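Provenance and format

Records in this collection were gathered into a single text stream. Each protein contributes a sequence line and a token line. The two records reproduced below are adjacent in the stream.
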Amino acid sequence: MRRSILSSLRAHLGRLVAACLAIVLGVGFGTLALSVHASASHGIDETIGKSNAGVDTVVESAERSIEAKDVAAVQKLPQAASVVVDTGAYLQVQWAGQVRPTYLSVKALYDTSKIAGPKASQGRLPDSTLEIALPARTAEKNKVALGSKLQLSSYDDKRWTVTVVGILDDSTSFGAASAVATAQSVKIFEPQGYVNQIKVSAQPGTDQEALAAAVGKVVPGLQVYTGAAWIDHEVKGFTNGIDVLGGVFGMFAVIALFVACLVIANTFTIVIAQRTREMALLRCVGASRRQVFSSVLAEASIVGLVASAIGVVVGVALSALGLALSREFDLELPPISLHLDLASIFVPLLLGTVATVLAAIVPARRATKVAPLAALRPADAPAAASKRGVVRIIFGFLLLAGGGLLLAASAASAQVVVGVAGGVISFVGVLALGSLLVPALVRLLGALPARKGGVPARIAVANAVRNPRRTAATTSALLIGVTLISLTCVGIASVRKTFDVTMDGEYPVDLTVRTYDEKLPASAEQQLRDIKGITQVVPIRTVDVKTGEQTLTITGIDQARAGSVIHNPQLVGQLRPGVALLDRPTMRMLELTEGADVTLVAAGHKVTLKAQQAGGLDPITITQADLQKLAPTAAVSGFWLASDPKADGPEVIDAVQQSLPTIKVLNVEGGLAERSSYTQIFDVLLIVAVGLLGVSVLIALVGVGNTLSLSVLERTRENALLRAMGLTRRQLRGMLAVESLLMALVAAGLGIFLGLVYGWTGTAALMSSQTDGKVQYAVPGTLLITIALVAAIAGLLASVLPARRAAKVAPAGALATE
């Protein structure tokens, strides 16, 4: 049998290439996920370990803050060789070319003979007061060179001029690193000297546990770590996100591998069906059922092992390429080199091989059930109906109904886990009904081309439904990918729409710009309007009124222009003469109810308005006409701004903060920063999810092309007979293209429909508890149409090679084939 297995692999290698490609893609994706996760985790471990070299014990605030007496108590311990006090100051710095200062963290230098500390990549570390060393990224961003002078200021408006004497190596730091200065300088900047941490190195002969125990006795109420435990604590703080990301990548890898299994199972089913006579001949010459079964599994094992090994190599290569490209972008992360562990190599290899063998078990068992003499006779196409098929259909309907009930329950009760279970169960039901559902949809969709496309189109529709089980298996792989992509697009679009409506309620104005006791220049409105990303600018006038011990700010805005900057239409409708919009705290403080009269008094002027509660605006917002009655001389004190949704929020905020250079203090607030950050997250999630799920779609399309290729081999004599009866090569290629297109469109249409259902129910389960049931459902029409078009085009492309192979066969020669 060993010779038979090897000769069979050589003879049928071309038919297994697509299955091998599916395994390579699935295993390669899994290897990519595991190796990137291993490299990131190892890089973080190594970086944090280097930055804490020499640290044997760390003291951190817990029930109380670290005080000077705690530092003194630790320094007196005989087990301590070196004690480092992590102190710092949070200052404002005036960078060259900027109108207003920004914030800079400055930490105190310490003795680095025992414990690792900052190092200068250029210049030197500060050794006297009013000298500073900046992180390399900070210096590069703000174009600061050695010897530059910087203006620092504290919260109480004390100012210092410092000299930049060094550039710090921050290549191994996470995020924005702190500048450093001498301990004397930090004491000048921040006399209170807030202590972040105490780091201690042990005397020779003292282990970390003994030192930590001694430190813990003299600093009650503080958290004490050993050096190793502190590194683990820091690593977990960074790797939790890495682990979540690794889990997401792993989930997509499992999906890709599952789709690959469907392609493999379908491929082996077709190949074994084509080799029925060959296997029957083996049975006739003495091979037992067990030997035939074992030979098929042996072939699957060899194919799986070789393809998985290639997939591991491809995955490792892609990991190395991806990590190399990540160094080209400023992600404020230390450089991560490729690190491979046993799991990232052998787990994908093992899973790919085992998955291939498992996918081949059912086709192998089916091959052993055919009697030798019966198999030597010409076989009819498989019957569409059987006892097993009827049971499967009944089982599918039960699963579909049960899963649908769970989905409805999850949407009503906001139980995500129930929704996931319902989605999985109902989708399994859809797959079980595939042999009934898919052919029916193919006939329905193929009615028009069959009527208008002539004989080739009618034959294509008949061929597509000739073997319902095979057609269902072929489309199921593509159906999974399209469903997941559609689900992701619909879910993210619905969550984004829900978030936008919620943000419109909490932050109805993108940005507010105000001054305090300063007169705005006459060109202020135009200066703000000229900022890239700002679409509308509406001036506001304010007046302060005193109520008991509280001072309330009353804001007046032009009613006609308010709608251009307030995103909440309900608030715009409420803002009218005679009405005051009050936020909830102000309503509660003034003990007002909805619709009650509120009398406002300022500088001898009085106005009585109807109070209405409105969230997200100023404490009291009224029309400019009413404010004119209350404060006729009120000048413009600020502006409400609307921004372009496609603009970069942080860049717009930075530009607004640096605008109006004649104003010393400019207060900029609003929900644009939060809205922009979440929008970017949604965009990244959508791109990543669609990109990752695209791998499963690619594998599925490989399966479509493979099925067509093998069906071409099955129908060689049939195609030759059609050619002999007058069918041209072009018509033959068109016939296969229509067949492939029908399967792709059915999978895309059904997948988009399921994606809508799952996306909406998932959004309801996820968001209803957070939005008081006010969930917004979205249909990303452009994306869904794009998905359908991509599936259609890919289906046509999948038919190109099989069609070329079929068209090249000469009719006379093909009629003579067995």
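Adjacent record:
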Amino acid sequence: MKPFKRNTIAFSLAHATFAQFILMGSGAALAQQAGPATAAAETAQPAAEQMDRIVVTATRRNTFVQETPLAVTAFNQDTLQNNQVKDLASLATMVPSLVVEQHGDSGGVHVYMRGVGSANHTELGDPAVAFYVDGVYSPRPQGATALMYDLSHVEVARGPQGTLNGRNSTAGAVNLVSAAPSTAKFMGSAGITVGDYRHLQTQGMLNIPFSDDVALRIAAIKDSHDGTVDFRRGSNVMPGTAKYGAGDQMGVRASLLWKFTPQLRGTFIADYFLDQGAGNVYLAAEPKPGEKLRSALIDTPGTLDQSILTYKGKLNYKPTDGLDFTYLGSWSRYKRQNSNDADAGLFPGFKSENRTDWAQFDSYSHELQARSDDDAPFQWVAGLFLFNEKNKVRFDIDRSQISQAAVQQDIANGAVIFVQPTVGQYASAMSFIQGDRQLKSKAVFGQVSQQVTDQIKLTAGARYTKDHKFDIGGKNWACPNWPANTPLGTTVLTPDQLAQLVTPGTGLANTHNIGPGGAITAASCGNTPGDNTADLKYGQATWLGRIEYKLRSDILLFGSVTTGFHSPAIGDGGATTKPEKLTSYEIGFKSDLLNRQLTLNLDAFLMKYKDKLESQVVNSVLANFNAAGATVKGLEAEWVWRPTSVDRLTGNATWLKAVYDDFLSCDVDAARANGQSCGSTAPLVNVGGSTMKHAPKFSTTVQYEHDFTVAGGQLTPRASVHYETMSYVGAGAFNGDVPGHAGVKRQEAYTTLDLSLRFQPANKAYTVEAFVQNATDKAVKLDVNEICTDVGMPCQPTQQIYGAFYNAPRTFGARVSMKF
């Protein structure tokens, strides 16, 4: 693989928020001006007791969160910074039932809401939580790792968003809305954050008005820190190698606003994100006594070089007060190279190196929307959507195994363990080469609302999506076979195992290993490729029905029935699945009480899934399949209480029950523990009633802030506590303990604590803050996999070794930012 260049440019320009307001006590930005009646009502409130609101676009209209009839949470840039949020993963505890898993071999993440998500972060899968930046869909899960900076706000809608957002939004949708250029005045801001693990973040923003009609906004960020996973003795790494968990990210965005006429305006954005960190790696899910959790025996250093370049354009034309047209177009290119230690040294003497030699994902989208006046009794919105994506990727796996005698000799000598098999030892490989995998999607949608009375509004909507997924000439190479690992103590080898032996006279140290960028032929591989050619066409209609009841000016009740679907998957060998479908029933309550001192939002939901999509590694191969169904029900609460002008108590809570319905499946872990194999000797078991992954019965986050007047300014200590009951985090749909590994696939109930102390002068010209994240250094398992099965380690037939991804350890730091 080509060496990974390191970006050394420091960006010192950063963001300032314009016309910022606070929602839900923790703050949300007002992206549009409120109407005269609303503004007058807020002005009548005492300034210290006001809790201003954010405008979101989840309904394809500009509506305040408290007037939006669905479960949506929003935060502005100031709130994100005050909570040390820089990406979606660090936002998780602030949003009810949101979980983000980190992963290693593709630079991506798995996003779950209400226990629903997708565990497939490869080109073979699609996320179940739709991710948008400025309304533009980001199809790859790596997009959710993008840095959050210079935003107007982020909005997170929970539950299916199939009518307005379409496919792959069965669990919810996230939209990052960047701050817009302003023609009002020249302004800017800059900030710097420093912390342990040599954390350094610089960011800045400049807003330049050229005239009353044209303005340019430029924002940039640079964020870097050392890794958190120490190299254990015997690791085969060069001095100075970056540890796993190290980050090196940057982003830059240029936005141009042009008011062509009073009726026509355009916004044009160029957005670039670069990540050159080290990625993540499995840690021992069952560490041995005295073994440091955040450490690993590494023979493949983590390298990552991924970038996302996006060009976006938005045109808004308003010919009359009652009619509005919007066009949104985009082109994006995502590229990646990376390498990862897939076995993480959990079986010394065995090496599994995962490499993306090259990957390029090009996509473009067009969306045309037409809508009526926001204040009319009868409202409508309609649109056309077109999306295309073309994927090209080469992903290789090299596996090697040396004798245990050589391993023990290295350990005894205190030397580095070199997993370089010689004659008579084992080497094999696999290569996935997808040169032309495409998706062509188009949709038409519409939604109408009628204000029946001053209190009652009815809404109905529908969408039809037509998709075409296909793979032309994709190949899987198994060199020479897969899987055919050779457990320790094996004396009689099968033909497949014999074929893996390094043979003399080949001129290669590792006969069948491919190596970075290596050529593959039938002769060098010892096998012929499998064909991934596939062609899948399908159409799906989704719909919505909703009723709103305005009990009082400050209390909104609503009920809805919505549907959604998740695209069927194309798998290895051209295998396909059915689409995942669901129907969701929801009742909501939104309120601003006690003269707006208390905001309380409640949402009860019941979601019924059919043909739920699942992904799991079976016999060292990632498989996509449909579960018969699942039922998810629960209650979410969000609140902010300001009992005085200087006290704020905010938080959220979720009560959740997410279980699979009756369907027969094979328990991969139990099968291995019993010396069986799924698909041959292991029985099928009904998993109906099993709890889904990332679905704790109860979780909550509570945050308290108090303002002290000191030194002509305001000093604000903050404490944020997050608590969850036990949840299942292992792969598969089975909740039972694995024989000999009790609790390994569970994350027991836990509590984390974040602390900060913030100072602002009276004019709020700058902010100084000190913070501690995960103050008690609690290790929380986010994902667990059985590595013997996952990467084909040479384990005994009933032996199991579990690896896990964990949350970040305790970190601390300080931030200084200013506006001008």
